[in-house]
Amino acid sequence: MRRKQLRLCQLTTPFESDSAGTWEVYPRPQLRRASYQSLCGLWRLTVIRREGQEELGEIQVPFPPESRISRIFRQLAPGEWYRYERTFRLQEPVRDGHILLHFGAVDQHARVFLNGQAVGEHTGGYLPFTLDVTAAVTEGENALTVEVEDPLDTELPYGKQRRDRGGMWYTPISGIWQPVWLERVPASYVRSLRLTPGLDHVMVETEGGATEKCLTLRLPEGERQYRYAGDTTVIQIEDPILWTPENPHLYHFTLQAGEDVIESYFALRTVTVESRGRRSYICLNGEPLFLHGLLDQGYYSDGIYLPASPEGYRWDILTMKRLGFNLLRKHIKIEPDLFYYYCDTYGMIVWQDMVNAGAYSFLIDTALPTLGIKRGVEHRPSPRRREYFEASARETVGLLYNHPCVCCYTIFNEGWGQYEGGRLYRELKALDPSRIWDTASGWFAEEESDVTSEHVYFRKLRLKARPDRPLVLSEFGGYSCKIPGHAFNLDKTYGYRNFRDLLSFRAGLERLYREEVMAAIAEGLCAAVLTQVSDVEDETNGLVTYDRRVVKVEEDTMSALATDLRAAFAQQITEGQ
Q1: How far apart are CA 463 and CA 377, in angstroms?
Q2: Calpha distance 470→436 (Å, rounded)
Q3: Concatenated DSSP letters of 246-291
Q4: Does 42 lie in the same domain as 126?
Q5: What is the 3-state secondary structure (H, E, C) of 212-244?
Q6: Same domain, residue pair 200 and 136
Q7: Is the C-alpha dihedral spanning 177, 182, 183, 187 positive or negative?
């Protein structure tokens, strides 16, 4: 029997006219140098098969070929792989020093050639990599080639991609999907920068660069210089201004190490678990804070894995802020650095998931927990999957370490790929003790974790905190409302409770918060993460549509609700003293 062809809609977003979709903006605000040359824009794309190859035309990098605005709009078939090609000339002569070639992310395995010379390769679809191409680059025209294979290998972190997309699984992407750029650095340069804040100081650690350094801090009253030798210094801040969602103050500075000059920033803030009376809470700067959050999948109807321009990130963050939310749980995906920069700048806390690997098992990961079995179950990873997942987790911690917005991490989500949670909690917590670690979001519960983490969709919230661990509702809701003219799948709808119109959707959502979340706060709940920011393909359970053109809820109602949640939380803390 032939499978019915679904009717899918090509939805445009408001961001497609911004920057002409080129993404030619500085991609790494926390380690900025003057020598930046974007290689985003048009590349030639060829698909290669066993029986031959086919030129597909020009692709707009950094959008994945599966996206409409990439100009290619096709899915990579099993057994195929891509070859990207372009030429460039250096904006500045090489002189002394190095030319570095940066890739934000390439899914899943990339081999890079410059002027016919192999300059490096990388495996893994979510993390950046840098190649020193000094020996291969010329002063004239340079030919850059990137070969990409993406078999959607589930032994590697792959997130919510699936070839047979539908329901909670989304269109898979392949190839280059984050910015590509060049940078000229001196012979001795700062290879890494690590910033560890306190409430009145910051520790600055560098690797590489000249021994003698000068840090120029820009303060409201003017600039102040700190000269030191070595790789580490601690800077005390007089009259410190702490970073909070309400006042996301950033301290900008310049660091000079010999000929190398970089721009960066830090914020003063701490994230801890502390007791207040008979309960434990997540505290920002030593004060309990109710984390009023949303699940954020990071999908867009224009570029799929990233918006047509960075304005898409700004719009999501600022819209959710206006609705009263102070947290986004970045779900099983790592974004370009600009996303976290905007969260730093606008005061949106990020709860970052590690990207899952391993095949999803309906029996283990859905059926057993639905029957109430939420402990003592785990997968058996292959040595290869273990190696790649743990390396990716460690690299994720290093990548996001300097961002003040990143306050919490999830290691495993709903049992998917879960193994040896206690060991991984201990190792990752030791790697970054300055954040909150949720070992298993939803299930299967682990004894070693900073929080108790629950998912509730198909029943009323009945939650009670234990005294030694903060209680987090890390997913709930999933209410669905499909908006005509703004839905991706015209035939199918996915959500956990369907509403036919906006009035009933808004009323149901407000009832959920006022009758159930409020009651859970009284029992010790300190974080609630609603599913979700936006519709994604078949899913219509977002507060905004997939094309970001309709906000389904009213700003005044949601802002008032957020105020009442904070008041209920403050009252619960006072009564619990």
Answers
A1: 22
A2: 10
A3: SS---EEEEEEETTEEEEEEE-B--EEEEEETTEEEEEETTEE--E
A4: yes
A5: EEEEEEEECCEEEEEEEECCEEEEECCCCCECC
A6: no
A7: positive
State which of 185, 209, 230 marks the end of a domain. 185
Sheet holding 232-236, edge to edge: 190-197, 201-208, 232-236
Number of neighbours of residue 258 by Cβ within 10 angstroms? 15
Does residue 252 fall inside a structural domain?
A: yes
Is residue 196 in some structural domain?
yes
DSSP tag of 516: I
Query: Residue 232 is part of which domain span?
Result: 190-266
Give 301's DSSP letter. T
Give CA–CA dist 555/282, Å, rounded.
27
Q: What is the pLDDT of residues 521-559, one digit of tens each?
A: 999 999 999 999 999 999 999 999 999 999 999 999 999
- The C-alpha atoms of residue 150 and residue 77 are separated, in whole angstroms, by 9
> Does residue 217 share a domain with residue 95?
no
**Domain match, 160 and 38 both:** yes
Instruction: Find where tokens 């906000």 sit.
Output: 551
Q: Could you report the per-residue pLDDT of 247-303, keeping only the tens digit for each?
A: 999 999 999 999 999 999 999 999 999 998 889 999 999 999 999 999 999 999 999
pTM score: 0.95
Distance of alpha carbon 482 from its chain centroid, rounded?
A: 26
Signed CA dihedral, 486, 490, 496, 499: sign only: positive
> Omega before 10 cis (within 30°)?
no
Find, among 187, 207, 192, 205, the residue nearest to 259 by Cα: 187
> What is the residue-wise DSSP string for 123-185?
E-SSS-EEEE-TTT--SS-EEEEEEEE----TTS--TTB-SS-BTTBB----EE-S-EEEEEE
Residues 45 and 91 in one domain: yes
How far is it, in rounded angstroms, from Cα 267 to Cα 253?
A: 11
Same domain assignment for residues 101 and 141? yes
- Half-sphere exposure of residue 528, counting CA atoms within 13 Å on the CB side? 27
Picking from 185, 214, 231, the residue at the C-terminal end of a domain is 185
Rounded distance between C-alpha atoms, residue 210 and residue 231, angstroms: 9
Cα–Cα–Cα angle for 455, 544, 19, rounded to 5 degrees: 125
